[in-house]
Specification:
Blueprint lengths: L1 H6 L6 H17 L6 H23 L3 H4 L6
């Protein structure tokens, strides 16, 4: 363990707690727990912001710029 800590430039005392966290997260996932809710929230917020950005950009464009003709 000491060699691994040196290779990754971390204090040796951190490895057991990281290992415990990793194993606990693995057990939770195997038990069917959902992925981190924070990631889901960020993904939803990202989608919402993309929709807003598209609406704002498309609203300022003419039909010709969007690929349509004035006769549509």
């Amino acid at each position: 363990m000491a060699e691994a800590a040196r290779q990754h430039d971390v204090h040796e005392s951190l490895i057991p707690s990281w290992k415990a966290q990793f194993l606990e997260a693995g057990r939770a996932r195997l038990a069917g727990d959902r992925p981190d809710q924070g990631v889901s929230l960020l993904e939803r917020e990202n989608d919402r912001l993309k929709r807003i950005w598209r609406r704002k950009n498309w609203s300022g464009m003419s039909r010709e710029q969007c690929g349509g003709s004035e006769d549509d």
